[in-house]
Task: inverse folding
């Protein structure tokens, strides 16, 4: 935000494209009417549905791909956004938060572990690692959803599978058309046994999934510094002022949302 | 220090009212004094003990429109105009304003808060009496401490000892008929201090103590502690639809609310009353000092006075110092 401006005033953006990713997740592509938002993968923006409210969303695209957000219909703001279409106006402010230290990961094998809408912050990473294959080691993607229809970005799975090892799983069972794995994400981690040697594991999903994924990775020998996650919290301001998102003495909005498990183990409260 | 006689008070207040709006303690009914806009200098009560609500709402209103937006007219931002003289602020409440500066003026600064602060002159008022719940001396201030005000008045027989602390304060005092003072500064009333630095040092080791659950059992989550607190600043932001757009409103909120941290999914990382009460305490005595270098408490004692179930933050501080909050 330029200094002297009002940090609570969102920039105006037009929705240029909406794509149904799953029955309850849509991908929104935004065109800013003015100004610019320079962000890095891992950061987030606060999007307004004017007259309904604001909520934080992670950037689901790389900056060079435009502004894309994968939004699951969940509460009042996301429901209002789901009712909007191309040409409609939204507000956007940000970027907020830290980012994935992608330079630090160079030369390492990367394991990306996502569950449900938790794939949103991981998608720009997947694109980044596939595009810059030479700079990184092997890329393994583990992605779980409730049913086959609940995989977001399934239209990109072919591209992902060409640039990485892609392992999908659903849980609970009960989709006759599904020929793949039926398992919870932590169980897939346990089954595939990725090696901790020279690796970084990056995970995002529901808090309960993150907890068990961390447990499985530790059992495989991953050190807390090798496990990275991105946290979600109720937020209003995004600037460390409204006091909604603190986890102990850290703010998810300012100190995060990207944390290593080493950092998380020092948090006073549960996330 | 100069002397302002009671007889010359009215004339000075009239001149302040001519320069801007005068906000001061006014008795709204017997026993209820609130910082209010003064219509007649005779309304001003400079013998008040405490206002239930601190003057923080002058800078951070309990509810305000951040902006209105409509696709055709764009943003309309409420203008902040005029000059305000905030008179009669006790040292604890002047410290409260300074504490509020930390979150609201840290980059990115909130321009509304910043503008109101710029346009307001704080005229402090020493305390000749201490209330039973006072513990301001725990935080480096005291009943006659002028340090967070632009000008400061100390009540003495027949009037006030008067001192300008800043250029703004000198400007506010320029119209007052002052005499050279030969009266000594009175002895401040006794206010006992709690060693909050010692509390801060041991606090982290007590985070998982069952003490917080025991204490929270009687908490009603009514949030009065936060609403009357000069240094609590949690806020909510909500939208209200207008005919062709939206009004976005910021309002006081509290981390004591059961809905405060609940996410749209229903997931809530801070589900228990104990964890919420603990958060308020740790924010004031651990996180806020870590972030800004000052305790998030002024020792005004309002939370002690107004808590309907007698949760007393001084008892918590003392229990920690006595080792009673340790896991048995």
Result:
């Amino acid at each position: 935000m330029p200094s002297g401006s009002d940090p609570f005033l969102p920039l105006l953006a037009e929705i240029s494209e909406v794509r149904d990713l799953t029955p309850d997740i849509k991908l929104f592509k935004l065109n800013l009417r003015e100004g610019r938002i320079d962000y890095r993968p891992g950061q987030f923006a606060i999007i307004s549905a004017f007259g309904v409210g604001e909520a934080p969303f992670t950037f689901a695209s790389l900056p060079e791909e435009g502004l894309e957000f994968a939004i699951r219909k969940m509460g009042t703001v996301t429901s209002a956004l789901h009712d909007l279409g191309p040409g409609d106006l939204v507000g956007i402010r940000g970027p907020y938060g830290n980012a994935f230290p992608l330079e630090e990961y160079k030369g390492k094998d990367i394991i990306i572990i996502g569950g449900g809408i938790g794939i949103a912050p991981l998608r720009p990473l997947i694109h980044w690692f596939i595009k810059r294959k030479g700079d990184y080691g092997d890329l393994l993607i583990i992605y779980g959803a409730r049913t086959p229809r609940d995989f977001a970005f399934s239209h990109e799975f072919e591209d992902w599978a060409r640039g990485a090892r892609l392992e999908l799983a659903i849980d609970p069972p009960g989709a006759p058309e599904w020929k793949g794995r039926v398992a919870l994400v932590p169980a897939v981690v346990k089954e595939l046994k990725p090696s901790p040697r020279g690796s970084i594991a990056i995970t995002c999903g529901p808090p309960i999934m993150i907890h068990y994924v961390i447990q499985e990775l530790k059992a495989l020998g991953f050190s807390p510094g090798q496990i990275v996650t991105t946290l979600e919290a109720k937020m209003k301001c995004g600037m460390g002022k409204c006091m909604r998102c603190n986890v102990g003495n850290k703010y998810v909005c300012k100190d995060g949302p990207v944390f290593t498990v080493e950092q998380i183990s020092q948090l006073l409260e549960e996330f | 220090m100069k002397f302002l006689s009671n007889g010359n008070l009215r004339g000075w207040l009239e001149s302040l009212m001519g320069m801007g709006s005068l906000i001061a303690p006014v008795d709204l009914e017997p026993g209820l004094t609130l910082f209010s806009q003064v219509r007649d200098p005779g309304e001003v009560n400079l013998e008040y003990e405490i206002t239930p609500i601190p003057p923080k709402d002058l800078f951070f209103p309990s509810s305000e429109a951040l902006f209105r937006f409509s696709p055709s007219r764009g943003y309309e931002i409420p203008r902040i105009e005029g000059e305000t003289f905030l008179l009669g602020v006790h040292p604890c409440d002047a410290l409260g304003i300074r504490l509020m500066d930390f979150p609201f003026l840290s980059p990115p600064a909130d321009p509304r808060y910043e503008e109101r602060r710029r346009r307001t002159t704080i005229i402090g008022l020493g305390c000749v009496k201490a209330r039973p719940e006072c513990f301001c001396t725990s935080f480096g201030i005291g009943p006659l401490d002028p340090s967070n005000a632009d000008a400061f008045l100390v009540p003495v027989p027949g009037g006030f000892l008067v001192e300008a602390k800043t250029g703004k304060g000198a400007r506010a005092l320029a119209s007052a008929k002052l005499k050279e003072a030969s009266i000594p500064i009175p002895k401040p009333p006794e206010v006992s201090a709690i060693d909050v630095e010692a509390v801060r040092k041991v606090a982290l080791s007590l985070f998982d103590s069952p003490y917080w659950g025991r204490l929270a059992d009687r908490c009603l989550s009514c949030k009065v502690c936060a609403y009357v607190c000069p240094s609590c600043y949690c806020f909510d932001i909500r939208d209200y639809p207008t005919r062709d757009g939206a009004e976005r409103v910021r309002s006081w909120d509290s981390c004591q609310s059961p809905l405060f941290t609940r996410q749209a999914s229903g997931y809530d990382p801070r589900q228990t009353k104990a964890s919420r009460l603990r958060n308020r305490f740790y924010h004031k005595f651990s996180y806020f000092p870590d972030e800004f270098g000052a305790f998030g408490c002024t020792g005004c004692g309002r939370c002690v006075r107004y808590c309907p179930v007698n949760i007393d933050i001084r008892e918590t501080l003392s229990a920690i110092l006595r080792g009673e909050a340790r896991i048995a």
About this structure: Chain B is about 30% helix and 20% strand. Chain B touches chain A through 49 residues (CB under 8 Å). Residues 2-180 of chain B form one domain.
